[in-house]
Amino acid sequence: MIFKWIARTVALVLFAAGMLGLAAYYYPEKFLSVDHGPVVGDVIVVLGGGYRGERAERAAELFRRGDAPRILITGFGDDEINRRALLQHGVPASAIEVENQSKTTQENALFTTKRLREEKAQRIILVTSWYHSRRALKTFEHAAPDLTFYSRPSYFGFDRDEWTQHDNARRMRLEFLKLPGYWFWYGVNPF
Length: 191
Fold this sequence. Notes:
This protein is α/β, with parallel strands linked by helices.
């Protein structure tokens, strides 16, 4: 009797996991992308990575709209690329800060939130690629639950017919592995 109950429970869990996996495979944008819509913050944080400055371009758009008075770039290696892109898109150098020690999303959150607290920022707008926005948001919220974070991702390569371009399909697949990985290693709950 107990064996049948265990077998049914395991089968049900496997079925549910399979259905969730299929839904995530066919609709990754529903699982990976988080966008809070128009918000006003103290600072815009641009995470390193992405494709040729699309994150910086999105941050500059939000800055020009007046969503926040300054921008903090985080991430070793992409910091100078993003700084130049921000300048090219009309953001004055005086409004740009750089954190260039972090090499992962976890380090982005830890190093940046320390700095944000020192600067008394409370409302932070995160800019990253759409497929990275859930993990980035949850990682920053985990690192600093006392601060308020909003996600305003770049939608470069968002349309399904663009997924094979610029390696976005591979990046989405990796993101589905990184979400549970961050939950396991760092305690960052993706939900």
